[in-house]
């Protein structure tokens, strides 16, 4: 039970939350004594880009393949256009490593406040996002740049392989949860090709999961349901863009955008999966030592589950939840603690395990 | 001051809410005596399709061009795939008539309940949606249908003309409102062509509106802001798909999805504009006489403003708001009235004008 993890803190508060998380996970491994874990620092990000002209090394995919998993911080810097930095680093990993399932649990979390008065029983959703194609396929271009007749396109590409594998993954995810409900989100009334393929594949794959109750919903109507009937939702699956939007919305509705984790999985396990907080590089608070590390703690717990340390993961989450419930929170959640204060409190809880 | 309006009730409850609205608007015209209005019934919709094989007549664009405006109900039927019915009727009008500005006011409305406890000062937003291109350009296709290597594409098409005209319209809309704030929504971190064009055009057009305060926001982050800081928002502009999603979300957050109106405008006034409730055909309640007509009343008020009867429009909205505030509401808003009950109550208010 010995793991090698690539640590890619990236930009902004990425560095702060990843180093906070390494402290906590190393403490956990040492205290429990049931597994060993090594984090190796990889310096990719905007600084690296400024020095080398690239966000990652030339052999970056091979480099990552040497590890059991990747713990990622954030990417993006005020002085580089976002489409350069994101395609240079994060999106250069998700697609090429075929991390096709982006999984985002969203639930009301200790220390956070749910802003919805319709969520009387709290929120407990599992969001599954197609992470390798669709609107993020990277196709499209611009012609006649600057002319009145300029045309720019963004081409969403859906393959049957791509849709089938994420659909199957989503049905399996729904099956593993107590309520066994799945909502397939598309926009097949206005988009007649890839979205209709999604509908067709959903209907076919559903035949293999008679124990999962599923329905279809248009992405616009889904936002209404999330607001008005949060209790009717369990697992959701949708395209790269639709779930990008719905997962931010979900975290906001649960009141937990500051603590939201995300797993970028290759379910075939041919490649290492990548775990990252949903928040970004947040340059406005970078260097102040007040970044909220909880989303990265939670992402690390998801990573531990993925590599096979389920018990350690649930112990870690227990510690984190106790600290949050005790009100040891960073300013974004209305607390007065700094990042290291939260780290120390979680380490103290870990010591008690 | 005499107007000819094409009435296209379409499918499902469309028929019920449009006929309710005609009663109210005719009463208003008669009572005020300041303008004349004629509604002419056009039978397009799923029944028409079943009889003729088309959702609209062959010369439908010329037919519509004879009117001062179009009052539209809904389209969509359980026995026809949505992408057939919608492209057959509604989307066959929006694009070809160049109704490029879809305008959706959203505000906390008498009789509705806002589910957000962050919206302490209520919600008052103006949503502007590009309505003629982008993700709804209708391009794309499927190859190798049914094979494992099947590929389906949806091509979003953005033209400089299309982006500039909606941006200018949005800045003008923002300028006409007391707070003069505009948020331009894009997704230019992951979409590098059309979305970057949006960013560039926004920056250029903004130069002509020094009195408007504007900012940019990614569509995913915008959902978070709508939930967490609703008071920071005034006017929003975005693409066809992004604003389709955000406008449903906005109405849900304001608690007013049942009353949400929508204007499909040709700001050049070469073509008649189309006004419709945001809700759809709702076959589950069709024929029961309980459809909520308020969204269509409000849409008709927006139509009156557009054709030049601003005073009549504000009087109509006053009557509708008084009826809603008095609790005369359909079941979707928790009331016990039927459609005709709401119509009668509004007509009574109109008589008092
Ligand atoms: C940073 C950005 C490219 C990314 C995305 O849009 O996928 C982020 O919003 C996310 O949700 O992980
Ligand atoms: C009916 C449908 C095609 C339409 C859309 O997606 O534009 C609707 O959702 C709307 O918002 O007007």
From TrEMBL, chains A, B:
Residues 4-346 form the Isopropylmalate dehydrogenase-like domain. It holds the Pfam family Iso_dh. InterPro entries: ICDH/IPMDH, IsoPropMal-DH-like_dom, TTC_DH. SUPFAM superfamilies: Isocitrate/Isopropylmalate dehydrogenase-like (SSF53659). GO terms for molecular function: NAD binding; oxidoreductase activity, acting on the CH-OH group of donors, NAD or NADP as acceptor. Belongs to the isocitrate and isopropylmalate dehydrogenases family. This is Isopropylmalate dehydrogenase-like domain-containing protein.
């Amino acid at each position: 039970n010995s793991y090698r993890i690539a640590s890619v803190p990236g930009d902004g508060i990425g560095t702060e939350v990843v180093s906070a998380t390494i402290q906590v996970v190393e403490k956990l491994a040492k205290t429990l004594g049931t597994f060993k874990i090594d984090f190796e620092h990889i310096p990719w990000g905007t600084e690296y880009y400024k020095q080398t002209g690239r966000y990652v090394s030339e052999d970056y995919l091979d480099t990552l393949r040497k590890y059991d998993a990747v713990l990622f911080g954030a990417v993006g810097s005020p002085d580089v256009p976002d489409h350069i930095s994101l395609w240079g680093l994060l999106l250069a990993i998700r697609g090429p490593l075929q991390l096709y399932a982006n999984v985002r649990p969203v639930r009301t979390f200790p220390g956070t406040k749910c802003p919805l008065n319709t969520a009387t029983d709290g929120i407990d959703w599992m969001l599954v996002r197609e992470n390798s194609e669709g609107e993020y396929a990277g196709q499209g271009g611009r012609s006649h740049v600057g002319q009145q007749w300029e045309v720019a396109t963004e081409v969403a590409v859906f393959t049957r392989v791509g849709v089938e594998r994420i659909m199957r993954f989503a049905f399996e995810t729904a099956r593993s949860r107590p309520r066994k409900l799945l909502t397939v989100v598309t926009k097949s009334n206005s988009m007649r090709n890839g979205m209709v393929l999604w509908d067709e594949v959903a209907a076919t794959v559903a035949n293999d999961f008679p124990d999962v109750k599923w329905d279809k919903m248009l992405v616009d109507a889904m936002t209404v349901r999330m607001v008005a009937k949060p209790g009717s939702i369990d697992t959701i699956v949708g395209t790269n863009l639709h779930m990008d939007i719905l997962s931010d919305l979900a975290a906001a509705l649960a009141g937990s955008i500051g603590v939201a984790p995300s797993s970028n999985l290759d379910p075939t396990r041919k490649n290492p999966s990548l775990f990252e907080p949903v928040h970004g590089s947040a340059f406005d608070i970078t260097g102040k030592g007040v970044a909220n590390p909880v989303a990265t703690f939670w992402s690390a717990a998801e990573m531990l589950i993925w590599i096979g340390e389920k018990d350690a993961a649930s112990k870690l989450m227990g510690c984190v939840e106790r600290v949050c419930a005790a009100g040891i929170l960073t300013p974004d959640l209305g607390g007065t603690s700094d990042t290291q204060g939260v780290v120390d409190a979680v380490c103290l809880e870990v010591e008690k395990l």
